[in-house]
Amino acid sequence: MQKKTLTALAVGLVLSMSACSDQPANTNGAADTAAQSMQAANADFYANNPFAQPSSLQYEAPDFRIIEDEHFMPAFEQGMAEHKAEIQAIINNPEAPTFENTIVAMEKSGELLSRVSRVFYSLSGTDSNEARRALQRELSPKMSAHSDDINLNPDLFARVEAVYNQRDSLNLDAESERLLEVYYNRFVRSGAKLTAEQRQQIRALNEEHANLTTQFSQNQLAITRAIAVVVDSEEELDGMSASQIRAARTAAEAAGHEGKYLISITNTTRQPVLASLNNRELRQRVWEASAYRGTSGEYDNRPIVKRLTEIRAERAELLGYENWAQYQLENTMAEKPENVYNMLGSMVPAVVENTLREQADIQRMIGREGGDFEVQPWDWAYYAEKVRQELYDMNESEVREYFEFNRVLHDGVFYTMYRLYGITFKLREDLPSYHPDVEVYEVFDHDGTSMAIFYADYFAREGKRGGAWMTSFVGQSGLLEKKPVVINVMNIPKAPEGEPTLISYDHVTTMFHELGHGIHGMFSKVKYPTLAGTSVSRDFVEFPSTFEEDWAAYPDVLTNYAKHYETGEPIPAELLQKVLDSRSFNQGFDTLEYISAALLDMEWHTLGTDANVEDVEAFEAAALEKHGVNLPAVPPRYKSTYFNHSIGGGYSAGYYAYMWSEILAADAFAYMQTQGGLTRENGGMYRRNILEVGNSRPPMESYIQFRGQEPTTDALLIRRGLKTNVD
User: Fold this and answer.
1) Is 514 noted as a catalytic residue in this protein?
2) Residues paired with 129 in a beta bridge
3) pTM tops 0.85
4) C-alpha distances in angstroms, 110 versus 82, 88, 173?
5) pLDDT, tens digit, for every residue of 163-208?
6) Which domains does the chain have, with CATH numbers?
């Protein structure tokens, strides 16, 4: 996912207005003077804090050898103070507002704050500890207030508006015009045109929102630790591989459960281990631990869910919108909630029909094995795997033997990037990482030019939030002469020491997905940091990542990495064909659980301020029934109390974006096959028109430049096995 959002809304707003630079923070003389005065007054900070200056490592990659937790708060405080002084210098500039002295000056401001924010909020998601969690709670209201001090400042907005009103006579290039439009809309959508009283209301709501999203996120971490299922005996784990059982024993020992076994709970409702556990009672325990998290006890998230959705409705109303979804979708490809409901709703009948056929197959399998019960959510994956084996004569454990992690990464993911774009990855053991499991690579372009630094953080561990995402320590910018420093994060269970990590095909495709986000950041070739890389609408940002997924099954790619972990023998042709044929298996379930979550997200965020939700579970049930997706055996991929995309804020009213982007991705991949498939020429065309341009032009314009037309849904339906050919 990009799946990349790590911070509350306020933090994102600040970062999007900030950038690091080797040059002075602002070419405006007044801003230079302000920053220099503050630096002189804080000589000790500048002498001893590693964030005081850009890192001396390549491309300003963070120097984790010298960064300590104690350095963060002083850097945040100094960074906010300097950013505030730079903004005030822009406001106080006696010259008439111009694009350079107002918009470009803001693009160059906030160097220190951006530098520390990118590192801290990345570590908060990947390597959290109690000190960082406490600091995150303390920073939430401060960063929210700092963001509001900028976005709700009437004097600053007056300058922005003055430049915007002159836009037709400024003779700006297309990217500069786009930047001016983005800045103006950001200020207006933040509340810059509201009355003083309304701006105060927005400030209060923003602060409360920042605190609650932080609490929701931290509750998620705590809950994940608390609900891990402790198993007394190895016999109960029948069906798991020997390696998985050893890993469960090691995890239990680390958690203080000597002689027992521990099954960790991942971030989705469905749990991977449910496909293999023969013990039905244990399957139910695992599923219930996942599905009912955040609904009781110290970390009950239900009050937070209700209040966060209320805050968003109140903010939307103050800003002149009917609901939060209408506000969120205004500058997206979907444009309005009705289009999302129509897109998802148009798929529901076919998806439900397909899912019911899958359920009937599973029910027959249960009967054949002597079961006399109706299929439950904790049964689905287990019996679906049996149906898969029957249909395709394919055992998932056997398939995993051909998906060894390192080979997938180097001979699959990196190999594809070379074939399409000509880029190569060189391990840089001299560059420090923030955890021993994280590898650092330098990325070279097709002509041998160094272009980026890439951090590969793939394994699950204590202190890392669930899921997968991409973010950046340094964003690309021509204006600031910055090359990107990008991170991919996943939660693959790591094999015990000395054993190979064998992964599922789902993990394989997620590795391709996340590097799709990664190259979106690394290939960025724009001038302004605000428009760089993945800074596009939510329903476009998942397109480049989803597009890369299908290369995992491309024959030339798959045969290059799918080799037995012991013998190195290529995956047998017969087994390979089974893997390819089975890609559409269980797609009814997969699609329905996703659509259910996307609809639930939209239902929460189309509520008005007059709504009064008293019971979260009852609201969920009513929402699913309303849209005809309430199949008891197929719960939503996320329920509200652990729906971090939606309730946590990053994708609020935006979870639909994965499906919307998949339409683009499937259409683009199908089109590329008509042009010769996996070739450098195709990769170059896609890179120039999609990956390099960021948000420097409207996303549909970029797609049409690449494809020659708008996408259709035909390829998506084929991709998901819901249609066999194009009519």
Assistant:
1) yes
2) none
3) yes
4) 7, 12, 25
5) 999 999 999 999 999 999 999 999 999 999 999 999 999 999 999 9
6) 9-220 (1.10.1370.40), 227-293 (no CATH), 405-584 (1.10.1370.40)
